[in-house]
Specification:
Length: 594
């Protein structure tokens, strides 16, 4: 679908601008060709997967675009750049966690480690030249909508020099990630600890656990990945895990690969085959992705499929924990399987039953030299790892929209919500990736993110085409969408009695899940409901919403571009002659004279 950008065609596009009739009055719409659209500056915040999608898709789809993508980090990758804890890996098959238009046939494993994923992101961003738009080491502190100019003022700090600066744009896109903020857990005495204290979200790669006594706090997605990595090296691991969790069998979702036990490595012969025959890889991708997309009943509570799946996980856990059944009792949840994010965690259950691991299903306190269990016993340790996840959902910096409304305060004090997950109230010309209720519970994440990007592209192009100053979602549309989300999620497993970061602390509302599958979201975003938005015209429209119709021409006519003038003659494979079986043999189609 997307080829690396052809610079020549960009230059050709630029040449067209010569045909603005009045150089002194370039925005006189009556003198413009109808397709000489409004120039537009877009700022994207974040260079993770979402920012990369913007950096690849936007310049290919949007003309007259000035694009800048800022990130506070020193390089791109977001989650996959930042997360460095031992065992960091994706928890869906990588074959279904890559861009639609760039297949990596050589994933070393079903769940490759973080650095391999980050290297992939970097290679794609380089190949498709998204990097050209990216500026690193620049942190956004706040953004303010200017109602007069119809632009965002974006306040930035250059982290290297400490200098602050303001950039402005017509459209602001948030790609700052849902899981980019973390806090120390609330554990008494935690910071009195004199040994090494580290959080999974902010790992210190100099840490070596070899021969050390380690306390690992938390058994969510990251704790599950960390334990099997540190257990063989550490002399002792005290694994504090207050919550319960489901661990699915490794082969779950991996039916298409011939996995052996815990070994999720891609077999050599498959790697060779995929390399030599990319078509066979696409077929393989289809299989993996369709595995992920199907099985939809699992997301509803008390369905046959949810029960079968739960039983499968329970049996798996029972057999792996046979040596220490007391762990099973403590770990086995009473909530439905997919209520929390499922992490396959190859090797986690096996590590739990090793002699040097003590599973402690309770909270703890910390003193200078170690940890204190609930019974008051002190245990000396050298290292404490808190794998307690990320800060809850929220807007990471103040964002002042219409009438000075601060989205950060709105989301902190009330409930984070956004129309179709990407357009929050009172924030004109602003869209967010992975916004509230903007993550797929079922199906593949990347095409889903790409579809969010395409929706934004449609909105930006509409602003350009029709010379609009602003587009902003109607309040009642935000509320109606929110009500729909609540109703949809009510009977799903996400609404089980589990503790998750994506439940609102105040009213318990579910904040992460899109109300449907990934494919469902892609369908729903394909055609924006323009009637749900309010618009303002740009001054150039002179008060008439139709002035953008311009001088009666398209640019191809003005430059004598033959192909452009006859674009409708492009090969269209969708039209093929049909034989009407009812007429077969009766009246032959008339010959077309050549
Ligand atoms: C440990 C971990 C494992 C995961 N595993 C999976 C998985 O297996 N499958 C899956 O589908 N999803 C997974 N996820 C979710 C994952 O975050 C998303 O799939 C995806 O990577 C999100 O990309 P993003 O670009 O939206 O956000 P991020 O990758 O979080 O990137 C956000 C970027 O914004 C930048 N930023 C934030 N605030 C500012 C600011 N104020 N100014 C400038 N820049 C800023 C950050 O520096 C960062 O680079 C995982 C998440 C984590 C944390
Ligand atoms: C909006 O922009 C105008 C014109 O540049 C400027 O005079 C005004 O101070 C700005 N308003 C705000 C709130 O920044």
């Amino acid at each position: 679908m997307y080829a690396p950008l052809n610079i020549n065609s960009q230059q050709a596009a630029r040449k067209l601008k010569v045909y603005e009739f009045d150089e002194n009055n370039p925005n006189d719409l009556k003198r413009r060709a109808v397709n000489q659209s409004r120039p537009m500056k877009v700022i994207v915040l974040g260079t993770g997967m979402s920012g990369i999608i913007a950096g690849i898709f936007f310049p290919r789809e949007i003309e007259n675009l000035d694009l800048v993508i800022y990130d506070k980090n020193t390089d791109l990758g977001g989650t996959w750049f930042e997360s460095r804890y031992p065992g960091i890996a994706c928890d869906v098959p990588a074959h279904a966690y890559q861009f639609t238009f760039e297949s990596n046939t050589q994933w070393s494993s079903f769940w490759p480690k973080g650095p391999e994923i980050n290297a992939y992101l970097k290679s794609v961003a380089t190949k498709y030249d998204a990097i050209r738009y990216m500026k690193f080491g620049k942190k956004c502190d706040q953004a303010v909508w200017n109602e007069t100019t119809g632009q965002w003022s974006v306040y930035m700090t250059d982290l290297e020099t400490g200098m602050v600066f303001v950039d402005t744009c017509d459209v602001l896109i948030s790609a700052t990630g849902a899981l980019n903020k973390w806090n120390w857990p609330d554990i008494a005495g935690l910071h009195s600890f004199k040994g090494k204290l580290v959080h999974s979200a902010s790992w210190d790669t100099t840490i070596d656990v070899t021969g050390k006594r380690v306390a690992l706090v938390g058994g969510g997605s990251s704790g599950i990945q960390i334990l099997p990595q540190i257990q063989p090296k550490a002399s002792e691991v005290l694994h504090f895990m207050r919550g319960k969790t489901w661990i699915p069998p490794v082969s779950f979702g991996a039916q298409s690969l011939r996995l052996q036990g815990n070994n999720a490595q891609t077999p050599d012969d498959l790697l060779e085959k995929f390399k030599n025959d990319p078509k066979s890889y696409i077929e393989f991708r289809r299989k993996i992705e369709s595995d992920l997309h199907s099985a939809s009943e699992v997301i509803y509570k008390d369905t046959e499929m949810a029960r079968t799946f739960q039983k499968m996980c329970e049996e798996h856990m029972r057999s792996k924990l046979a040596k220490k059944p007391e762990i099973l009792d403590a770990l086995l949840p009473d909530y439905p399987v997919a209520c929390r994010r499922l992490t396959p965690g190859p090797g986690y259950l096996e590590a739990l039953v090793q002699d040097n691991v003590k599973f402690i299903p309770e909270g703890l306190e910390v003193y200078e030299d170690g940890v204190i269990t609930k019974d008051g016993t002190r245990h000396e340790v050298d290292i404490i790892i808190t794998a307690t996840g990320y800060a809850g959902y929220g807007q990471p910096f103040p964002l002042y929209g219409q009438g000075g409304t601060n989205l950060q305060a709105l989301w902190d004090n009330d409930v984070p919500e956004a129309y179709m997950s990407l357009a929050p109230q009172k924030m004109p010309n602003y869209f967010c990736f992975l916004g509230p209720n903007g993550g797929p519970g079922l199906g593949s994440t990347v095409p889903f993110l790409e579809a969010q990007g395409k929706y934004m592209i449609q909105c930006i192009k509409k602003l350009q085409r029709e010379w609009l100053k602003s587009i902003v979602i109607k309040y009642d549309a935000v509320k109606a969408f929110g009500a729909y989300v609540d109703r949809f999620l009510e009977p799903t497993v996400y609404n089980g009695n589990c503790r998750v970061w994506w439940r609102h602390k105040g009213n318990g509302r579910l904040l992460a899940m899109w109300p449907g599958s990934a494919l469902h979201g892609m369908y729903a975003w394909a055609n924006p409901r323009w009637e749900d938005f309010d618009y303002e015209l740009k001054e150039e429209q002179g008060g008439n919403r139709f002035n953008w119709l311009g001088n009666g021409y398209v640019t191809a006519q003005l430059v004598g571009d033959v192909a452009g003038m006859t674009f409708y003659l492009d090969d269209d494979k969708s039209f093929v002659p049909v034989q009407n079986p009812l007429l077969a043999g009766k009246s032959p189609a008339p010959e077309i004279a050549s």
